[in-house]
General transcription factor 3C polypeptide 1
Amino acid sequence: MDPLSVAVDEVALEGLDGITIPTLWIRLEDRQPKFPLKLDDCTRELIWKSLIINTDLKFYQLPQEREDVVLYDRFKDIDPETGIETALTFSDIRKDVYPIHIILENKDGIQGSCAFFKQRTDITKQVRSKSLTPLVNLQEALERYGRKLVVVASQMLRFRTLIGIESDPDLKLNDDSYCVLERVGRARWQGELQRDLHGSSFKIDARKLHYMRKSLVKHGLISMQSHATRIKSGQQQHSILLLLKRFHVNRRTKYDILMEYVSNILQQLPGQFATLITLRDQLNVDEGTFKRVLQYMRNAKLVEFRQYPLEDLDPSAGPATNKKGNKVLVRCLKMLKPYTKKGVTDDDDDDDEDEEDGTGARRRGPPAEGRIMETDVLSQAYHIVLSCGTKGIPQSGVGFRMNVGKLESRMLCRRLERDGVIKRRRFMIRVKENKKVWRRLGQSVVMKKWMQQVKAWVEREVKREESQEQNDRRQGGKSSVRAKQTQPEIPIEQTTPAEGETPACSKSTTPNSESDPKTEQARVEEEKESNASAATPLPQSEAETTTNNPPDNNIVVVKDVLQPKARKDEKSRKSLARSHETYRLLRRKNLIVEAVRSLKIIEGLFPLQKIINDEEKQDGFSSKCCRKTILRLVHGLSKEGLLKIYKTTVIQDGITKKVEMVVHPSIQPNDDIVNRVLDQIRFRISALTLL
């Protein structure tokens, strides 16, 4: 590269902020390889004229002067033999003369970071004529503008300089990722630590910076290598050093160097083993570093620990037996295979692109099979799960084999689970890592026909249970009452199946759906039954009687939620579940029953939760009762007939509010006390609308 092209390259590397003339001389003096010309006055005037006539460069005047850049060498205090930083003094935090201010969605396609992008003034016409001749020389420009004068390269020139000649010039990067690339390019050979980028420069979360950097690594624009710095406390802090590909230098870490040193020592010794004390004395490192080196070598299966009797190693040493009469054993390190240097790899530990396939092996190459465009994706996903048999397949494995992303594979698996043809199981395969394994549920390949059979079976069961409930009602069984208050010309709002109905009442198409919420005993039974086969839905009996519809301004549907009756073959199971009731559980039930008896009607579950928590706090319990626990207890007591649950929807001034009431068994939906509670709710809604 000729000297004038080198000057233009330095201007482009400085980014959208541009470069001042004094900073340009500093960059050229520190250029690697060395700038071929001597930077005297004549050379500087020549470089100035070459910048003037270059149409890819523009000149701007900043609203204030910019300080000169301060160069530093982050590798000067690192021992090349051990890779350990030996700095004893720590300088103050360097002032950043290029604060981050990302230019977002510019209409002219300009990308980068510039603090004075809108405030600076274009003075190109004042220093360059239309015929590309300089209007002012270097001395006049410095006297007139000083450090307010900056030279800025065009967007295309800056982008080509950053990505290099080997990358695609039509590549598109988002604004955030481009700013990271620009920042890394401005650092030249020194690079940027990822810790400094998210902590000092961009001041964002490390997870967000990871995704900003991810596209740069994917397209091969930057390289990454591990870097350790020593902080003021004396400890070493590890981070990732980012560099442009053109500035990448394969610097070995201290552990890489120490591992090679230990391997060389063991190769020279007879038997290729040595005591740990001897190795540590030769390495001359602290205990933590020594243990980590041995751990890395052991994980790489380069060495193994062995124990040898002291008398075999050194007969002239101290006592060879301990107090118990056993031989004194010495820990030694035995070499299994010599250390070999690794190639340069991207040290991206937290990149979620490296997933595991169904066999648990890492995958980096192209997928083994793709999508069949003539077949819908649901059928392909189902047949992939079907081909794995009872073993199942991870969700990531489905996406890998279909060549789709993680979100799309999750959507496909959830859709198949909703259709009832596969089921999910979670298990731990590694520390702090969950895997979802999807297994086939249906035994028939024709899913549509199987689903129609299930739907018909559910409808038959619903009709049978409804007829049985009508017979029970004629015999004097308990029935629920639905009181309806409707306004003329306003349709009655129906309650959704989620408000206490089981799938049998909501005409569910799958026998695996569960009613929400269930009692604690029913949940235990459900888990036991799901291991053998798909659970059979329990029908919910619901008797409704309609009262006259008096004119009112609101829609109120009061619904008595009854729990499904237990079958005869489940009585033994419930007796076993009841035997596991603890004192604390019975205490909570008693508090709920006493509260309902004294207050007769309670709006919502929070008052019951507060009563239980206050009582248990006085008894010395530190844990609190959650809302789901209250819900299970209330439904269990409702099933035993100790209380009732009324659910209603109140509409007042266009605002819809779902209300849940826990009442005494003697309270009916059309009683005055229920109407008073509903009137209070309407009043509160009206008061909120007036605020």
The first helix runs from residue 3 to 13.
